[in-house]
Amino acid sequence: MKKTIFFLLLILISCKSYQKISTSERENIISELDYIVNIDQKYSGGAFEELLSKYGKKEGWKIFEAKRDSVGIENQKRIKNLYSKYGYLGYNQVGKENSTKFWLPIQHADNDVKFQQKMLEELRREIKKNNASKNEYAMLEDRIAINLKKKQRFGTQVTYSADGQAIPKYGLIDNVNIEKLRSEYKLESFKDYYNWMTTNHFEMNKEYFVKKGITKPLLYK
Fold first, then answer.
1. By the 8 A CB rule, do 112 and 149 touch?
2. Of the residues 63, 80, 105, which one is the last residue of a structural domain?
3. Domain containing 49: what range?
4. At residue 60, does pLDDT exceed 90?
5. 16-39, pLDDT tens digit by residue?
6. What is the total count of domains within the chain?
């Protein structure tokens, strides 16, 4: 009897009820997600040219990185606030496109791996209800893996060899079944993705590679 009561209490504690989203609240949530993703993308690239010209390359990058970090932390606070009120914002709550906007700052929350892990479990539950994206789950799982300096399952997180070829950061758990696994999680083929990343990297750094005697990207066959 005592065991039954204990397990019932555990269920009640774990089953948090979230606020139901009204039409007006949905509009406010989407507006908040738009703001979050716009500023996230603004700081996802390189340092702004005006910073580099005003402060020089070294100091300009330093200022940019500090601002990028503060933007990331502020976005995390906003996402955590939304989650605490409404739970994981999947397709049913805000639609597919806006669900991705909710996921993106979680993917970028590398300073808070515990939060990423918690959201990964939420994603797992939502996928079972067809309320979230399998490829976003795969990318978040891999992101957590590299943040913990572990091998990836899906190979979504890339680094580059000295010759400029894209390779999975910290390696893959299973090289043999990678294409099957990526297909199951709605990811493009390993070969296509890594050749695309290799080509982009080569074009962005072409002058450097040509000086090294590398005149074309080293693609996977």
1. no
2. 105
3. 24-105
4. no
5. 678 889 989 999 999 999 999 999
6. 2
